Amino acid sequence: MKANFQGIPASSGIAIAKAYKLKVPNLSYTHKTFTDSEMEIQRFENALKQSKQDLKCIRESIRRKLGDDSADIFSAHLLILSDPTLIVPTKERIIHKRLIAEEALDQTRTLLIEMFERMDNRYMKERALDVQDVTNRVIAHLLGVDFPSLAFINEEVIIIANDLTPSETAQFDRKFVKGFVTDRGGATSHSAIIARSLNIPAIVGARDLTHYVSEGSLIMIDGHTGKIKINPSDNDLRMYRREKKMREQQNKKWTVLKDEPTWTEDGQRVKIAGNIGALEDVQAVVESGGEGIGLFRTEFLFMEKNQLPSEEEQFTAYRFVLEKMGHKPVSIRTLDIGGDKELNYLHMPEELNPFLGVRAIRFCLKHETIFRTQLRALLRASMYGQLKIMFPMVATIEEFRQAKALLVEEKKRLIQDGVDVATNIKVGIMVEIPATAIMARQFAKEVDFFSIGTNDLIQYTMAADRLNERVSHLYQPYHPAHLFLISNIIDAARQEEKAVSMCGEMASDPLAIPILLGLGLHELSMNPSSILSARSQIQGLSQSQITSVKHDLLSMHTAEEVLQYMKENNFG
Ligand code: PEP
Ligand code: MG
Predict the structure, then answer these.
(1) Cys-Cys crosslink for 285: which of 128, 188, 274, 441, Cβ 3.0 to 4.6 Å?
(2) In the prediction, which pLDDT does 179 show?
(3) Is 522 a catalytic residue?
Protein backbone atom coordinates (compact mmCIF):
# COMPACT_ATOMS: atom_id res chain seq x y z
CA MET A 1 0.00 0.00 0.00
CA LYS A 2 1.38 3.39 -1.02
CA ALA A 3 2.38 5.39 2.07
CA ASN A 4 4.35 8.37 0.79
CA PHE A 5 2.86 11.06 -1.39
CA GLN A 6 4.03 14.31 -2.83
CA GLY A 7 1.82 17.30 -3.44
CA ILE A 8 2.26 20.99 -4.11
CA PRO A 9 3.25 22.89 -0.97
CA ALA A 10 0.55 25.46 -0.28
CA SER A 11 1.17 26.57 3.28
CA SER A 12 4.21 25.66 5.33
CA GLY A 13 4.46 23.89 8.67
CA ILE A 14 4.27 20.30 9.86
CA ALA A 15 1.12 18.62 11.15
CA ILE A 16 0.47 15.15 12.49
CA ALA A 17 -3.11 14.08 13.22
CA LYS A 18 -5.89 11.71 12.28
CA ALA A 19 -7.31 11.94 8.78
CA TYR A 20 -10.77 13.44 8.39
CA LYS A 21 -12.07 12.63 4.94
CA LEU A 22 -14.37 15.25 3.62
CA LYS A 23 -17.42 13.71 2.06
CA VAL A 24 -18.75 15.42 -1.00
CA PRO A 25 -22.48 16.10 -0.65
CA ASN A 26 -24.66 14.46 -3.28
CA LEU A 27 -26.23 17.36 -5.15
CA SER A 28 -27.85 15.37 -7.93
CA TYR A 29 -31.53 15.95 -8.65
CA THR A 30 -33.99 14.30 -10.99
CA HIS A 31 -35.57 16.16 -13.83
CA LYS A 32 -39.26 16.62 -13.11
CA THR A 33 -42.05 19.14 -13.62
CA PHE A 34 -44.28 20.73 -11.00
CA THR A 35 -47.77 22.12 -10.78
CA ASP A 36 -47.37 25.32 -8.84
CA SER A 37 -44.69 27.72 -10.09
CA GLU A 38 -45.46 30.14 -7.23
CA MET A 39 -44.47 27.42 -4.78
CA GLU A 40 -41.32 26.58 -6.73
CA ILE A 41 -40.29 30.24 -6.72
CA GLN A 42 -40.92 30.28 -2.98
CA ARG A 43 -38.69 27.21 -2.52
CA PHE A 44 -35.96 28.98 -4.46
CA GLU A 45 -36.37 32.16 -2.38
CA ASN A 46 -36.18 30.16 0.86
CA ALA A 47 -33.03 28.35 -0.22
CA LEU A 48 -31.45 31.69 -1.13
CA LYS A 49 -32.41 33.09 2.26
CA GLN A 50 -30.97 30.12 4.15
CA SER A 51 -27.77 30.25 2.12
CA LYS A 52 -27.37 33.95 2.84
CA GLN A 53 -27.87 33.22 6.50
CA ASP A 54 -25.12 30.56 6.40
CA LEU A 55 -22.74 32.88 4.60
CA LYS A 56 -23.33 35.72 7.04
CA CYS A 57 -22.50 33.39 9.95
CA ILE A 58 -19.34 32.19 8.22
CA ARG A 59 -18.38 35.77 7.36
CA GLU A 60 -18.69 36.87 10.95
CA SER A 61 -16.67 33.97 12.23
CA ILE A 62 -13.95 34.65 9.64
CA ARG A 63 -13.94 38.34 10.47
CA ARG A 64 -13.30 37.48 14.12
CA LYS A 65 -10.60 34.91 13.30
CA LEU A 66 -8.82 36.50 10.37
CA GLY A 67 -10.00 40.05 9.91
CA ASP A 68 -11.77 41.99 7.20
CA ASP A 69 -9.68 40.98 4.21
CA SER A 70 -10.45 37.28 4.46
CA ALA A 71 -14.08 37.94 5.36
CA ASP A 72 -14.51 39.99 2.19
CA ILE A 73 -14.57 36.80 0.12
CA PHE A 74 -17.89 36.01 1.77
CA SER A 75 -19.25 39.48 1.17
CA ALA A 76 -18.54 38.80 -2.49
CA HIS A 77 -20.36 35.47 -2.18
CA LEU A 78 -23.33 37.20 -0.62
CA LEU A 79 -23.44 39.63 -3.52
CA ILE A 80 -23.64 36.70 -5.95
CA LEU A 81 -26.76 35.49 -4.14
CA SER A 82 -28.45 38.85 -4.70
CA ASP A 83 -27.23 39.27 -8.25
CA PRO A 84 -30.08 39.68 -10.74
CA THR A 85 -28.02 37.88 -13.43
CA LEU A 86 -28.34 34.75 -11.31
CA ILE A 87 -31.82 35.24 -9.87
CA VAL A 88 -33.87 36.62 -12.76
CA PRO A 89 -33.00 33.96 -15.38
CA THR A 90 -33.47 31.22 -12.77
CA LYS A 91 -36.97 32.44 -11.99
CA GLU A 92 -37.74 32.78 -15.69
CA ARG A 93 -36.69 29.18 -16.22
CA ILE A 94 -38.96 28.10 -13.39
CA ILE A 95 -41.92 30.01 -14.81
CA HIS A 96 -41.49 29.54 -18.56
CA LYS A 97 -39.69 26.22 -18.84
CA ARG A 98 -41.43 24.74 -15.78
CA LEU A 99 -38.13 23.51 -14.40
CA ILE A 100 -37.73 22.72 -10.72
CA ALA A 101 -35.63 25.30 -8.90
CA GLU A 102 -32.58 22.96 -8.70
CA GLU A 103 -32.48 22.48 -12.45
CA ALA A 104 -33.32 26.10 -13.25
CA LEU A 105 -30.48 27.32 -11.04
CA ASP A 106 -28.10 24.70 -12.38
CA GLN A 107 -28.73 25.85 -15.96
CA THR A 108 -28.34 29.52 -15.09
CA ARG A 109 -25.10 29.01 -13.22
CA THR A 110 -23.62 26.84 -15.98
CA LEU A 111 -24.05 29.72 -18.42
CA LEU A 112 -22.63 32.23 -15.93
CA ILE A 113 -19.63 30.04 -15.18
CA GLU A 114 -18.93 29.54 -18.88
CA MET A 115 -19.11 33.28 -19.38
CA PHE A 116 -16.60 33.96 -16.57
CA GLU A 117 -14.26 31.26 -17.81
CA ARG A 118 -14.21 32.72 -21.31
CA MET A 119 -13.10 36.11 -20.00
CA ASP A 120 -9.52 37.08 -20.65
CA ASN A 121 -9.02 38.11 -17.08
CA ARG A 122 -7.61 35.97 -14.34
CA TYR A 123 -9.72 37.59 -11.63
CA MET A 124 -12.99 37.06 -13.49
CA LYS A 125 -12.08 33.45 -14.21
CA GLU A 126 -11.65 32.81 -10.53
CA ARG A 127 -15.18 34.17 -10.01
CA ALA A 128 -16.43 31.09 -11.83
CA LEU A 129 -15.31 29.03 -8.83
CA ASP A 130 -17.12 31.36 -6.47
CA VAL A 131 -20.37 31.03 -8.42
CA GLN A 132 -20.01 27.24 -8.31
CA ASP A 133 -19.35 27.26 -4.59
CA VAL A 134 -22.21 29.58 -3.69
CA THR A 135 -24.82 27.92 -5.88
CA ASN A 136 -23.88 24.47 -4.55
CA ARG A 137 -24.96 25.69 -1.15
CA VAL A 138 -28.31 26.86 -2.54
CA ILE A 139 -28.87 23.53 -4.31
CA ALA A 140 -28.01 21.67 -1.09
CA HIS A 141 -30.69 23.66 0.73
CA LEU A 142 -33.20 22.94 -2.04
CA LEU A 143 -32.45 19.23 -1.79
CA GLY A 144 -32.36 19.23 1.99
CA VAL A 145 -28.82 17.79 1.83
CA ASP A 146 -26.28 18.64 4.54
CA PHE A 147 -23.35 20.72 3.44
CA PRO A 148 -20.11 19.40 5.06
CA SER A 149 -20.24 20.53 8.67
CA LEU A 150 -16.59 21.33 9.13
CA ALA A 151 -17.46 23.83 11.79
CA PHE A 152 -18.47 20.94 14.07
CA ILE A 153 -15.15 19.12 14.11
CA ASN A 154 -14.09 18.81 17.73
CA GLU A 155 -10.89 16.76 17.69
CA GLU A 156 -7.48 17.30 16.11
CA VAL A 157 -7.58 16.27 12.45
CA ILE A 158 -6.00 16.78 9.07
CA ILE A 159 -8.65 17.28 6.41
CA ILE A 160 -8.27 15.11 3.32
CA ALA A 161 -10.43 16.17 0.42
CA ASN A 162 -10.67 15.90 -3.30
CA ASP A 163 -10.95 19.67 -3.34
CA LEU A 164 -11.91 22.42 -0.91
CA THR A 165 -13.97 25.50 -1.52
CA PRO A 166 -13.13 28.78 0.20
CA SER A 167 -16.18 28.57 2.40
CA GLU A 168 -15.18 25.09 3.58
CA THR A 169 -11.63 26.15 4.30
CA ALA A 170 -12.76 29.23 6.11
CA GLN A 171 -14.91 27.22 8.51
CA PHE A 172 -11.85 25.47 9.91
CA ASP A 173 -11.29 25.95 13.57
CA ARG A 174 -7.51 26.14 13.97
CA LYS A 175 -7.74 24.48 17.35
CA PHE A 176 -8.88 21.24 15.69
CA VAL A 177 -7.97 21.46 12.02
CA LYS A 178 -4.21 20.96 12.00
CA GLY A 179 -3.79 21.01 8.26
CA PHE A 180 -5.28 19.90 4.98
CA VAL A 181 -4.43 18.06 1.79
CA THR A 182 -6.39 18.12 -1.44
CA ASP A 183 -6.07 15.90 -4.48
CA ARG A 184 -6.75 18.79 -6.76
CA GLY A 185 -6.03 22.43 -6.76
CA GLY A 186 -3.47 25.02 -7.51
CA ALA A 187 -1.67 27.26 -5.12
CA THR A 188 -3.75 30.19 -6.39
CA SER A 189 -7.05 28.82 -5.16
CA HIS A 190 -8.79 30.75 -2.45
CA SER A 191 -8.45 27.71 -0.19
CA ALA A 192 -4.68 27.94 -0.39
CA ILE A 193 -4.82 31.67 0.27
CA ILE A 194 -6.96 31.14 3.33
CA ALA A 195 -4.67 28.34 4.58
CA ARG A 196 -1.76 30.75 4.45
CA SER A 197 -3.64 33.40 6.36
CA LEU A 198 -4.82 30.78 8.88
CA ASN A 199 -1.20 29.73 9.08
CA ILE A 200 -1.99 26.04 8.94
CA PRO A 201 0.07 23.59 6.89
CA ALA A 202 -1.54 22.71 3.58
CA ILE A 203 -0.73 20.70 0.51
CA VAL A 204 -2.68 20.78 -2.74
CA GLY A 205 -2.48 18.78 -5.96
CA ALA A 206 -1.77 15.49 -4.17
CA ARG A 207 -3.58 13.77 -7.05
CA ASP A 208 -5.17 10.50 -5.84
CA LEU A 209 -4.35 10.72 -2.14
CA THR A 210 -8.01 10.41 -1.09
CA HIS A 211 -8.10 6.88 -2.53
CA TYR A 212 -5.30 5.75 -0.26
CA VAL A 213 -6.22 7.37 3.05
CA SER A 214 -8.79 5.75 5.31
CA GLU A 215 -10.83 7.76 7.74
CA GLY A 216 -9.05 8.03 11.10
CA SER A 217 -5.62 6.80 9.96
CA LEU A 218 -2.66 8.76 11.24
CA ILE A 219 -1.25 11.14 8.71
CA MET A 220 1.71 13.46 8.68
CA ILE A 221 2.08 16.40 6.34
CA ASP A 222 4.91 18.80 5.67
CA GLY A 223 3.49 21.89 4.02
CA HIS A 224 6.98 23.11 3.39
CA THR A 225 8.07 20.27 1.12
CA GLY A 226 4.65 18.96 0.05
CA LYS A 227 5.42 15.54 1.54
CA ILE A 228 2.64 13.40 2.99
CA LYS A 229 3.05 10.17 4.97
CA ILE A 230 0.21 7.84 5.83
CA ASN A 231 0.68 5.82 9.03
CA PRO A 232 4.18 7.18 9.67
CA SER A 233 6.60 5.03 11.66
CA ASP A 234 7.55 5.93 15.23
CA ASN A 235 10.82 7.09 13.85
CA ASP A 236 9.16 9.39 11.30
CA LEU A 237 6.97 10.80 14.05
CA ARG A 238 9.86 11.49 16.37
CA MET A 239 11.80 13.15 13.60
CA TYR A 240 8.92 15.34 12.45
CA ARG A 241 7.87 16.36 15.97
CA ARG A 242 11.41 17.43 16.73
CA GLU A 243 11.68 19.30 13.48
CA LYS A 244 8.34 21.02 13.97
CA LYS A 245 9.34 22.37 17.35
CA MET A 246 12.71 23.47 16.14
CA ARG A 247 11.25 25.22 13.09
CA GLU A 248 8.80 27.16 15.18
CA GLN A 249 11.47 28.45 17.53
CA GLN A 250 13.93 29.23 14.80
CA ASN A 251 11.52 30.90 12.40
CA LYS A 252 11.27 33.70 14.89
CA LYS A 253 15.01 34.17 15.16
CA TRP A 254 15.64 34.14 11.42
CA THR A 255 13.44 37.07 10.52
CA VAL A 256 16.26 39.50 11.36
CA LEU A 257 18.19 38.15 8.36
CA LYS A 258 15.53 39.20 5.89
CA ASP A 259 17.30 42.22 4.46
CA GLU A 260 20.83 40.89 4.71
CA PRO A 261 22.76 39.47 1.79
CA THR A 262 24.15 35.96 2.30
CA TRP A 263 27.84 35.48 3.10
CA THR A 264 29.76 32.56 4.52
CA GLU A 265 31.71 33.14 7.70
CA ASP A 266 34.86 33.74 5.65
CA GLY A 267 33.33 36.12 3.13
CA GLN A 268 32.09 33.99 0.21
CA ARG A 269 28.98 35.61 -1.28
CA VAL A 270 26.08 33.20 -1.87
CA LYS A 271 22.82 34.22 -3.57
CA ILE A 272 19.54 32.73 -2.44
CA ALA A 273 16.45 33.09 -4.60
CA GLY A 274 12.95 31.65 -4.30
CA ASN A 275 10.97 29.09 -6.31
CA ILE A 276 7.40 29.94 -7.14
CA GLY A 277 4.46 28.23 -8.81
CA ALA A 278 1.73 30.78 -8.26
CA LEU A 279 1.66 34.52 -8.50
CA GLU A 280 0.95 35.04 -4.87
CA ASP A 281 4.09 33.09 -3.92
CA VAL A 282 6.10 36.12 -5.04
CA GLN A 283 5.03 37.91 -1.90
CA ALA A 284 6.56 35.14 0.21
CA VAL A 285 9.85 35.47 -1.70
CA VAL A 286 9.88 39.21 -1.05
CA GLU A 287 9.01 38.73 2.62
CA SER A 288 11.76 36.16 3.10
CA GLY A 289 14.36 38.39 1.53
CA GLY A 290 14.79 36.28 -1.62
CA GLU A 291 17.42 37.73 -3.96
CA GLY A 292 15.40 36.87 -7.04
CA ILE A 293 13.19 34.13 -8.44
CA GLY A 294 15.31 31.13 -9.43
CA LEU A 295 12.40 29.10 -10.76
CA PHE A 296 8.91 30.11 -11.79
CA ARG A 297 7.12 26.86 -12.66
CA THR A 298 4.80 28.30 -15.29
CA GLU A 299 2.93 25.02 -15.81
CA PHE A 300 0.78 25.83 -12.80
CA LEU A 301 -0.70 28.74 -14.74
CA PHE A 302 -1.72 26.15 -17.32
CA MET A 303 -2.85 23.46 -14.89
CA GLU A 304 -5.33 25.50 -12.95
CA LYS A 305 -7.31 26.32 -16.07
CA ASN A 306 -9.78 24.46 -18.23
CA GLN A 307 -8.07 25.77 -21.34
CA LEU A 308 -4.73 27.16 -22.42
CA PRO A 309 -4.02 30.57 -20.90
CA SER A 310 -3.92 33.22 -23.62
CA GLU A 311 -0.83 35.23 -24.52
CA GLU A 312 -2.35 38.22 -22.78
CA GLU A 313 -3.08 36.27 -19.63
CA GLN A 314 0.44 34.90 -19.54
CA PHE A 315 1.95 38.32 -20.26
CA THR A 316 0.03 39.78 -17.30
CA ALA A 317 1.26 37.01 -15.01
CA TYR A 318 4.93 37.26 -16.06
CA ARG A 319 4.86 41.04 -15.94
CA PHE A 320 3.39 40.90 -12.44
CA VAL A 321 6.24 38.72 -11.16
CA LEU A 322 8.93 40.77 -12.90
CA GLU A 323 7.57 44.05 -11.61
CA LYS A 324 7.18 42.71 -8.12
CA MET A 325 10.85 41.64 -8.07
CA GLY A 326 12.08 44.99 -9.46
CA HIS A 327 15.74 44.86 -10.40
CA LYS A 328 16.21 41.33 -9.04
CA PRO A 329 16.57 38.48 -11.58
CA VAL A 330 13.57 36.29 -12.37
CA SER A 331 14.11 32.92 -14.08
CA ILE A 332 10.90 31.91 -15.77
CA ARG A 333 10.81 28.29 -16.86
CA THR A 334 8.87 27.51 -20.01
CA LEU A 335 6.07 24.99 -19.81
CA ASP A 336 7.13 21.72 -18.13
CA ILE A 337 4.10 19.59 -18.83
CA GLY A 338 4.03 15.80 -19.20
CA GLY A 339 5.35 13.22 -16.74
CA ASP A 340 3.11 13.56 -13.73
CA LYS A 341 1.82 16.97 -14.80
CA GLU A 342 -1.09 16.68 -17.17
CA LEU A 343 -3.25 19.19 -18.95
CA ASN A 344 -6.57 17.37 -19.14
CA TYR A 345 -7.93 19.73 -21.74
CA LEU A 346 -5.16 18.84 -24.21
CA HIS A 347 -6.02 15.12 -24.20
CA MET A 348 -2.38 14.10 -24.39
CA PRO A 349 -1.89 10.46 -25.40
CA GLU A 350 -1.14 8.09 -22.54
CA GLU A 351 2.45 6.96 -22.31
CA LEU A 352 3.98 3.84 -20.78
CA ASN A 353 6.79 5.82 -19.13
CA PRO A 354 5.58 9.40 -19.00
CA PHE A 355 8.71 10.68 -17.23
CA LEU A 356 10.72 9.40 -20.18
CA GLY A 357 8.19 10.57 -22.70
CA VAL A 358 6.95 13.77 -24.31
CA ARG A 359 7.60 16.12 -21.43
CA ALA A 360 8.69 19.75 -21.00
CA ILE A 361 10.79 21.03 -23.92
CA ARG A 362 9.94 17.88 -25.91
CA PHE A 363 6.26 18.73 -25.59
CA CYS A 364 6.87 22.38 -26.47
CA LEU A 365 8.88 21.58 -29.57
CA LYS A 366 6.08 19.29 -30.72
CA HIS A 367 3.41 21.90 -29.99
CA GLU A 368 5.01 24.98 -31.46
CA THR A 369 1.92 27.17 -31.30
CA ILE A 370 1.61 26.72 -27.55
CA PHE A 371 5.33 27.33 -27.14
CA ARG A 372 5.44 30.40 -29.35
CA THR A 373 2.54 31.94 -27.44
CA GLN A 374 4.43 31.52 -24.20
CA LEU A 375 7.65 32.88 -25.69
CA ARG A 376 5.85 35.97 -26.99
CA ALA A 377 4.27 36.58 -23.61
CA LEU A 378 7.68 36.28 -21.97
CA LEU A 379 9.40 38.56 -24.47
CA ARG A 380 6.74 41.23 -24.05
CA ALA A 381 7.02 40.99 -20.29
CA SER A 382 10.82 41.31 -20.46
CA MET A 383 10.51 45.10 -20.42
CA TYR A 384 9.27 45.00 -16.83
CA GLY A 385 12.23 43.49 -14.98
CA GLN A 386 15.30 41.29 -15.18
CA LEU A 387 14.02 38.31 -17.16
CA LYS A 388 15.87 35.02 -17.58
CA ILE A 389 14.20 32.36 -19.74
CA MET A 390 14.88 28.76 -18.84
CA PHE A 391 14.09 25.65 -20.91
CA PRO A 392 13.33 22.49 -18.91
CA MET A 393 14.42 18.88 -19.55
CA VAL A 394 16.88 19.68 -22.30
CA ALA A 395 18.61 16.46 -23.38
CA THR A 396 20.43 17.54 -26.53
CA ILE A 397 22.12 20.63 -27.85
CA GLU A 398 19.77 20.55 -30.86
CA GLU A 399 16.78 20.93 -28.55
CA PHE A 400 18.32 24.03 -27.02
CA ARG A 401 19.14 25.44 -30.42
CA GLN A 402 15.64 24.81 -31.72
CA ALA A 403 14.02 26.37 -28.68
CA LYS A 404 16.32 29.37 -28.86
CA ALA A 405 15.71 29.76 -32.59
CA LEU A 406 11.96 29.96 -31.94
CA LEU A 407 12.60 32.55 -29.27
CA VAL A 408 14.75 34.61 -31.62
CA GLU A 409 12.10 34.35 -34.35
CA GLU A 410 9.35 35.55 -32.03
CA LYS A 411 11.57 38.35 -30.81
CA LYS A 412 12.18 39.53 -34.39
CA ARG A 413 8.46 39.41 -35.14
CA LEU A 414 7.60 41.43 -32.08
CA ILE A 415 10.22 44.03 -32.88
CA GLN A 416 8.92 44.24 -36.47
CA ASP A 417 5.46 44.83 -35.02
CA GLY A 418 6.85 47.70 -32.98
CA VAL A 419 6.72 45.89 -29.64
CA ASP A 420 9.54 46.64 -27.20
CA VAL A 421 11.63 43.68 -26.03
CA ALA A 422 14.50 43.88 -23.54
CA THR A 423 17.98 43.46 -24.95
CA ASN A 424 19.50 41.76 -21.94
CA ILE A 425 17.34 38.62 -21.59
CA LYS A 426 19.44 35.66 -20.49
CA VAL A 427 18.54 32.29 -21.99
CA GLY A 428 19.49 29.14 -20.14
CA ILE A 429 18.54 25.56 -19.42
CA MET A 430 17.59 23.35 -16.53
CA VAL A 431 20.14 20.58 -16.20
CA GLU A 432 18.11 17.59 -15.11
CA ILE A 433 19.20 14.83 -17.48
CA PRO A 434 22.52 13.00 -17.00
CA ALA A 435 23.41 13.35 -20.69
CA THR A 436 23.20 17.12 -20.32
CA ALA A 437 25.16 17.10 -17.09
CA ILE A 438 27.92 15.07 -18.74
CA MET A 439 27.94 17.36 -21.77
CA ALA A 440 27.82 20.47 -19.59
CA ARG A 441 30.99 21.94 -21.07
CA GLN A 442 29.57 21.83 -24.61
CA PHE A 443 26.24 23.24 -23.43
CA ALA A 444 28.01 25.96 -21.47
CA LYS A 445 29.43 27.35 -24.70
CA GLU A 446 25.90 28.03 -25.97
CA VAL A 447 23.70 28.85 -23.00
CA ASP A 448 23.77 31.91 -20.74
CA PHE A 449 23.18 29.94 -17.56
CA PHE A 450 22.43 26.58 -15.98
CA SER A 451 19.95 25.78 -13.28
CA ILE A 452 20.41 22.33 -11.80
CA GLY A 453 17.11 20.48 -11.40
CA THR A 454 18.05 17.80 -8.90
CA ASN A 455 14.49 16.53 -8.45
CA ASP A 456 14.74 15.02 -11.90
CA LEU A 457 18.51 14.66 -12.14
CA ILE A 458 18.47 12.25 -9.19
CA GLN A 459 15.67 10.14 -10.62
CA TYR A 460 17.31 9.85 -14.01
CA THR A 461 20.79 9.25 -12.60
CA MET A 462 19.60 6.52 -10.26
CA ALA A 463 16.75 5.23 -12.48
CA ALA A 464 14.47 5.64 -9.46
CA ASP A 465 11.06 7.20 -10.10
CA ARG A 466 10.75 10.27 -7.90
CA LEU A 467 7.10 9.43 -7.13
CA ASN A 468 7.58 5.75 -6.32
CA GLU A 469 8.20 5.14 -2.65
CA ARG A 470 9.18 1.54 -3.40
CA VAL A 471 12.41 2.75 -4.92
CA SER A 472 12.83 5.77 -2.69
CA HIS A 473 15.86 4.13 -1.06
CA LEU A 474 17.58 4.54 -4.41
CA TYR A 475 16.55 8.14 -4.83
CA GLN A 476 19.80 9.39 -3.32
CA PRO A 477 20.74 13.07 -3.59
CA TYR A 478 24.14 12.44 -1.94
CA HIS A 479 25.11 9.53 -4.14
CA PRO A 480 28.64 10.17 -5.44
CA ALA A 481 27.42 9.69 -9.04
CA HIS A 482 24.94 12.52 -8.58
CA LEU A 483 27.51 14.72 -6.84
CA PHE A 484 29.93 14.00 -9.65
CA LEU A 485 27.39 15.25 -12.20
CA ILE A 486 26.66 18.37 -10.16
CA SER A 487 30.36 19.05 -9.86
CA ASN A 488 30.80 18.63 -13.61
CA ILE A 489 28.03 21.13 -14.31
CA ILE A 490 29.51 23.70 -11.91
CA ASP A 491 33.03 23.29 -13.30
CA ALA A 492 31.80 23.59 -16.89
CA ALA A 493 29.90 26.76 -16.09
CA ARG A 494 32.92 28.24 -14.38
CA GLN A 495 35.26 27.35 -17.27
CA GLU A 496 32.94 29.05 -19.74
CA GLU A 497 32.20 31.91 -17.33
CA LYS A 498 28.49 31.17 -17.22
CA ALA A 499 26.18 31.42 -14.23
CA VAL A 500 25.04 28.27 -12.47
CA SER A 501 22.43 27.80 -9.78
CA MET A 502 20.32 25.00 -8.37
CA CYS A 503 16.54 25.06 -8.08
CA GLY A 504 15.82 21.41 -7.19
CA GLU A 505 14.76 20.58 -3.65
CA MET A 506 18.32 19.64 -2.78
CA ALA A 507 19.21 23.34 -2.77
CA SER A 508 17.34 23.88 0.49
CA ASP A 509 18.39 20.65 2.16
CA PRO A 510 20.55 21.61 5.14
CA LEU A 511 22.60 18.44 4.75
CA ALA A 512 23.24 19.22 1.11
CA ILE A 513 24.04 22.93 1.41
CA PRO A 514 27.63 22.44 2.70
CA ILE A 515 28.22 19.81 0.02
CA LEU A 516 27.00 22.17 -2.71
CA LEU A 517 29.15 25.01 -1.45
CA GLY A 518 32.04 22.58 -1.33
CA LEU A 519 31.46 21.77 -4.99
CA GLY A 520 31.61 25.48 -5.76
CA LEU A 521 27.92 26.35 -6.09
CA HIS A 522 27.04 29.84 -4.91
CA GLU A 523 23.52 30.38 -6.22
CA LEU A 524 20.58 28.50 -4.76
CA SER A 525 16.86 28.78 -5.33
CA MET A 526 14.31 27.27 -3.00
CA ASN A 527 10.84 27.35 -1.52
CA PRO A 528 10.53 30.84 0.01
CA SER A 529 9.97 29.46 3.50
CA SER A 530 13.48 27.91 3.43
CA ILE A 531 15.37 31.05 2.43
CA LEU A 532 16.05 32.47 5.86
CA SER A 533 17.08 29.17 7.38
CA ALA A 534 19.49 28.54 4.51
CA ARG A 535 20.92 32.05 4.93
CA SER A 536 21.43 31.48 8.60
CA GLN A 537 23.12 28.13 8.00
CA ILE A 538 25.46 29.53 5.35
CA GLN A 539 26.56 32.34 7.66
CA GLY A 540 28.00 29.68 9.92
CA LEU A 541 29.95 27.83 7.20
CA SER A 542 33.50 28.39 6.11
CA GLN A 543 33.97 28.24 2.34
CA SER A 544 37.69 27.53 2.50
CA GLN A 545 37.18 24.63 4.87
CA ILE A 546 34.47 23.07 2.71
CA THR A 547 36.38 23.56 -0.52
CA SER A 548 39.21 21.51 0.91
CA VAL A 549 36.97 18.42 1.15
CA LYS A 550 35.66 18.51 -2.45
CA HIS A 551 38.20 16.00 -3.65
CA ASP A 552 37.38 13.59 -0.80
CA LEU A 553 33.64 13.82 -1.46
CA LEU A 554 33.96 12.94 -5.10
CA SER A 555 36.00 9.85 -4.41
CA MET A 556 33.50 8.33 -1.96
CA HIS A 557 31.79 5.05 -2.78
CA THR A 558 28.33 5.49 -1.29
CA ALA A 559 25.84 8.16 -0.30
CA GLU A 560 26.09 6.91 3.25
CA GLU A 561 29.83 7.51 3.27
CA VAL A 562 29.29 11.05 2.01
CA LEU A 563 26.86 11.85 4.80
CA GLN A 564 29.04 10.21 7.40
CA TYR A 565 32.04 12.17 6.21
CA MET A 566 30.15 15.47 6.32
CA LYS A 567 29.01 14.74 9.85
CA GLU A 568 32.43 13.73 11.05
CA ASN A 569 33.83 16.96 9.66
CA ASN A 570 31.07 18.95 11.34
CA PHE A 571 29.52 20.15 8.10
CA GLY A 572 26.18 18.41 8.48
C1 PEP B 1 13.79 19.64 -10.76
O2 PEP B 1 13.60 18.68 -11.50
O3 PEP B 1 14.69 19.67 -9.88
C4 PEP B 1 12.94 20.83 -10.85
C5 PEP B 1 13.19 21.91 -10.15
O6 PEP B 1 11.86 20.73 -11.66
P7 PEP B 1 10.49 20.00 -11.25
O8 PEP B 1 10.59 19.61 -9.80
O9 PEP B 1 9.43 20.98 -11.53
O10 PEP B 1 10.49 18.83 -12.16
MG1 MG C 1 12.35 18.91 -13.21
Answers:
(1) 274
(2) 95
(3) no
